[in-house]
Write a structure and sequence with these properties.
single chain, mainly beta, four-stranded antiparallel β-sheet, 10 strands, 12% helix, 46% strand, globular
Length: 146
Amino acid sequence: MEPLQDRYGYYLDPQGYLDVLPDISGSLPDGVAKFVTDPGHYDFRSERCVKDLTLNKMSLTDSEGLIALEVFLAPNEWKHASGLRIQYSDVRALDVSTKESDGMLARLGSLQLDEVLPHPSGFSHEIAFTCGSVAIVAADLVAAWE
């Protein structure tokens, strides 16, 4: 998932994904479905919209034969009252990609859009940032604004 670029920056429109979300939400694990169908998730004016959050911390744990991932997305001071903590269970894949921009150090930047899809292992979650992306495949997740 790549945000469409226009000549002024990024044109973001989640409508195409929102159109198919009702059809796929029944195929998603319970925690994922609750997270992605929250009315504020893709409402750019909502305090519970993921747009403009920044990745603050990731913690990967391998214990008892299962890999767990905790991601904390920090709030944007002009938009969010709190950050978002996502705990992924039984992680099967994790990919973090960054790109250099005009000689600047590689970094992810601000969250632009995310997309969750059904996957044989549970679900895939692709998170597009202004300067990179994070892709996760896991069994389920728990998300909390805190």
